[in-house]
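Subject: sequence -> C-alpha cells, single chain

Hey, anyone have a minute? Need the predicted structure for the following. Not urgent.
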Amino acid sequence: MKGIEISKEYFYKYGLPMLEKDFPDLISKLACGIIGSGSECLGFDDAVSADHDFDPGFCIFIPGEDVINRRTAFLLERAYAKLPKEFSGVKRSLLSPVGGARRGVLRTEDFFAQKIGSADGVLDISQWLSIPEQALLEATNGTLFFDNYGEVTKIRESLKYLPEDIRLKKIAGNLLMMAQSGQYNYMRCIEHGDTAAAQLAVYEFVEHAISTVFLLNKAYKPYYKWCFKALRALPELSIEAEIFEYLITTDNTADLCKEKYDAIESVAADIVDLLMKQNITNAICGDLEKHAYSVNDAIADAGIRNLHIMAAV
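Reply:
Had a minute. Here:
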C-alpha cells in the first residue's frame, strides 16, 4: 500500500474520530491531508522509502493565532501525539526530520512560508523566477482529505502552476543552455580530446532538456532523484527519458560520440516540434538558440521579456 493511502486510512480510522470527539468546534477551521516533503506525497514511495521519514501520520493545517490560539493549538498537538504509534506495519516517526516536522499540527502560514517564502502564497515576479520548482511542487502535491476553512486550497490553487510569462522565460533560458552545451560544445570538447568536459556538456544538456520537457508539459519538475520517474509519466515527450538515460550513462569514445550527438539533435528536434505545436516560437530551424530568443520574444510582459534571457535559469 502506498504511503498516501496508509495516511488516509490512518486519518479516517483515528484522526477524524479524535477531531470529532475532542475538537468538534474546530473542524470547520481545519484542513487535513498529506502534502509537502516525502516521496509518498508524489506517489513515488516504495520499499526503500520506509527507511527514513516515512510515517502513517497526516497534516492538520490550522489558521493564524487570531483564529486558533496557541493554547488550542497545543491541545491539538498533544491529541495528535497520542494517536496510535503504528499503523499497517508502519511506525510513527519519533524524531522530526531535518527541516522540521512533516506531519502533525501545522500553521498554514508557517507551512507555505517554509516552502516558498510566502505565508499567503502571493509571489512577485522575482519570486516566481527564483523559487525552485521542487519547492512549488511540495506546496501543491499530495492530497487534502478535507479543507473546511478553505485557506490551504485557495493558496494551493494560486500556486498550481507558473504564470505563462514565467514559464516562457524559463523555457527560453533552458533552450539556450541546451544549445550551448549540446548542440555546440559537446562535439567541440570531443575535438579537443577532453572527454570529461564532453560528459559535463552532456549533463548540462540533459539537465536543461529535462527542465524544458517539464515546462512544456506545464508540470513542476521534482527533486532530481524523482525526475526520471516523473518524466516517464508525462503526457508529452516522456519517451525522451530513455535518450536522456543513454546520454548520461554512456562513454564518449570515438565510436559513440557521433551517435550521442545524433541523439542530442533528435531531442532538440522533438522539443522544437512541441514548441511549434504550442505556438511559442516563430523560428523555422533546428537551432535551439534561435528558438530561445524567439520564445523570449513571445513574453507579453515587457519587464520580464527584457530581463536577461537566463534570468529564470
